[in-house]
Amino acid sequence: MVSKIKGEFQYFKSMPHGMRVLLITNMIYSMVLPIIEVFVSAYIMRSESNPSLVLKYQLAVFTGIPITFVVNGYLLNHIKVAHLYSVGMLLSGVSMFIMMFLENLNLTAIVVSGFLMGLSYGFFWANRDFLALATTNDDNRNYYYGLETFFYTISAIIIPAFVGLLFFYTDEFNWFGGGQIVSYRLLTVLVFALTITSTVIIHRGKFEKPKLKKFIYFKFDQLWNKLLVLSALKGLAQGYLVTVPAILILKLVGDEEILSTVVSISGVIAAITLYLLGRFTKPNHRIYIFAIAYIIFFIGAFTHAYLFSALGVIIFILSKVLYQPLHDISYFPIQLRVIDILTVKEGKSEFSYILNHEFGLYFGRVIGIGLFLLLAVYISDTVALRYSLIIIGIVQLLSIPLAKHIINKSK
């Protein structure tokens, strides 16, 4: 067992230096993501008991992302990519600080905090995608995304469990006065510490600063237009996956401690599966992993809609924890492979595709969140929580034949 672990470590060391630095940075920052994706939504729901308000927060987040992508494109000509990457990580802590330390949480505070979180995501994802593209190739991208999503999944196990213990002991031993608010503020301090650590590590890499004379285009190759449709289908579910699980847990299951336990337990199988898939699968296996991910999501969404109970919620969250990493390990290499081909064919900068892709995601996110809000406003919150996910799950199945077509055209 020890020799196998050493062998895997040696394999990791054989990867390019920039790729290793990026992976280590993302490993640290992966411990932040479960907090800002799950427990910020739970905090809003806990404070206001309004699912629509949580989705409005998420809409503000998603609006800030594409705006930041555009700004990031201009800044890349003047500021090192590692600096911009660091800004993204640090802004997530600032956004949490604003929300958690305000005495009165109103719509304005939620929107401002959400928009700032969107800025943090924008700087983080724009530069992460650019660095991943620059430090990997098609042969090692399965390994890169397999290891990266392995980190994210392990964090999805450890961090929620830690947060659950934090909530328990804060109340049990009356730390800093006790109570839910104190627990959330301690989480904010933890986020700042982790983002600072990630910032220090990313600056150990030597990354070239790109020169982007032009990066905004409106006409692209047909292959890219098809990938944009795929990105919009992906975006449909994203708003739900970072907000609705927390809402469902608090409404149908219990409190944050149960939320922590469910998310942690469901990640064990996913973590082991992901590392093995990333280590041993080849580019031709991506479509199978992609299809399995969407089928799992559909099964979870259908079960939730049919049962609409604590058991249904738990099954859906189990499917979500499996779906997300399986989807990422297959989707991102498909996206980057298309960019590799089209940068040569069209002569456009790599960042122009990264930027345009984000607007495809944004279009899908707005439609997805809009569906929930329409159902909530014109029918009820209960109908929106019960049926919006199954609608999304059905539509997303269209991604499978489209992804297969894109892969075939990218060979």
UniProtKB/TrEMBL annotation:
<keyword id="KW-0812">Transmembrane</keyword>
<feature type="transmembrane region" description="Helical">
    <location>
        <begin position="21"/>
        <end position="45"/>
    </location>
</feature>
<dbReference type="GO" id="GO:0022857">
    <property type="term" value="F:transmembrane transporter activity"/>
</dbReference>
<protein>
    <submittedName>
        <fullName>MFS transporter, YQGE family, putative transporter</fullName>
    </submittedName>
</protein>
<keyword id="KW-1133">Transmembrane helix</keyword>
<feature type="transmembrane region" description="Helical">
    <location>
        <begin position="359"/>
        <end position="379"/>
    </location>
</feature>
<feature type="transmembrane region" description="Helical">
    <location>
        <begin position="57"/>
        <end position="75"/>
    </location>
</feature>
<dbReference type="Pfam" id="PF07690">
    <property type="entry name" value="MFS_1"/>
</dbReference>
<feature type="transmembrane region" description="Helical">
    <location>
        <begin position="181"/>
        <end position="202"/>
    </location>
</feature>
<feature type="transmembrane region" description="Helical">
    <location>
        <begin position="147"/>
        <end position="169"/>
    </location>
</feature>
<dbReference type="InterPro" id="IPR036259">
    <property type="entry name" value="MFS_trans_sf"/>
</dbReference>
<feature type="transmembrane region" description="Helical">
    <location>
        <begin position="82"/>
        <end position="101"/>
    </location>
</feature>
<feature type="transmembrane region" description="Helical">
    <location>
        <begin position="385"/>
        <end position="403"/>
    </location>
</feature>
<feature type="transmembrane region" description="Helical">
    <location>
        <begin position="107"/>
        <end position="126"/>
    </location>
</feature>
<dbReference type="InterPro" id="IPR011701">
    <property type="entry name" value="MFS"/>
</dbReference>
<keyword id="KW-0472">Membrane</keyword>
<feature type="transmembrane region" description="Helical">
    <location>
        <begin position="289"/>
        <end position="317"/>
    </location>
</feature>
<feature type="transmembrane region" description="Helical">
    <location>
        <begin position="223"/>
        <end position="252"/>
    </location>
</feature>
<feature type="transmembrane region" description="Helical">
    <location>
        <begin position="258"/>
        <end position="277"/>
    </location>
</feature>
